[in-house]
Amino acid sequence: MKKAQCLILAGGLATRMRPITERIPKALIPIRDEKPFVDYQLDWLARHGVSDVVFSIGYKGQMIQDHVGDGARFGLRVRYVDEGTDLRGTAGALRLAFEAGVLAPEFLVTYGDSFLPVDFGAVYEAFQKSGLPALMTVFKNAEQFDASNVCYESGRVTLYDKFLKDKPATMQYIDYGLSAFRREVVAQEVQPGAKADLADLFHRLSVQGRLAGFEVTERFYEIGSPSGLADFRQLTWV
Fold it and tell me: For labelling, which of 42, 79, 92, 144 has a CA lying 20 to 30 Å from the CA of 11?
């Protein structure tokens, strides 16, 4: 099976994790024995179908670059696209990576504060088989971790809406935090220089019938909040 490229969105200001993130970016928050979160994330990706990583960095991004380097010690090829202080949003970051010429024709996207215990290679393969221009992993949330925002049925996301108040009964899933795109979607749907959010792009693709889905049954972990960090630090199998 062909190994995948994964773009990691790691440019945010991490205000919820202050005062820790006044000194370091979220990706470098120590988990156990001073081993930073990004090491756990990259180790997992290297073991589960990813060979090429692009970091979208911004806030204290040079610290991530200094720590990770070229990725060789993780068995990965790692490159960087720096947003600097002019953060463009999650979709805008994809456009910047497109303009930098580092995106593969098909690629995965995840977040710099997310640990997702799923086989990234299997998700990539499902995306390729779907024949659709984008894919979202989904988790049957039932309002457990956050407000459900996805209607999912038979391998398709039929509706994604992060802000819908009057939700249909079928909206029982949540965006798991791993997605896949064809490069031309970024070129066509995200304007150059624009500040744009992936939530809006996912919504458009879902109502157009162009968003595949992949259901994950293992819960996700994140270090973007104090409670999330505490949960992740309790894991003994990573």
Answer: 144
Residue that has been written with the tokens 């000194």 in this structure:
23
How far apart, in whole angstroms, are the C-alpha atoms of residue 47 and residue 59?
A: 28
SS3 202: helix
Query: b/e for 29-47, b at 16 or more Cβ within 10 A?
Result: bebeeeebbbbbbbebbbe
- One-letter amino acid for residue 82 of the chain: D
Contact between residue 5 and residue 182 where contact means Cβ atoms under 8 Å apart: no
Greatest C-alpha distance within the chain: 49
Q: Enter the tokens of residue 37.
A: 């979160």
Q: CA-to-CA distance for 99 and 161, rounded, in angstroms?
A: 28
Q: The tokens of 104 are what?
A: 């593969």
Asked if the 4-233 domain carries CATH number 3.30.565.10, the reply is no
**What tokens appear for 69 in the block?**
């380097």
Query: What pairs with residue 4 in β-bridges?
Result: 50
Give the residue extent of every domain in the chain. Answer: 4-233
pTM of the model: 0.94
pLDDT digits (tens, 9 = 90+) for 15-44: 787 888 889 899 999 998 889 999 999 999
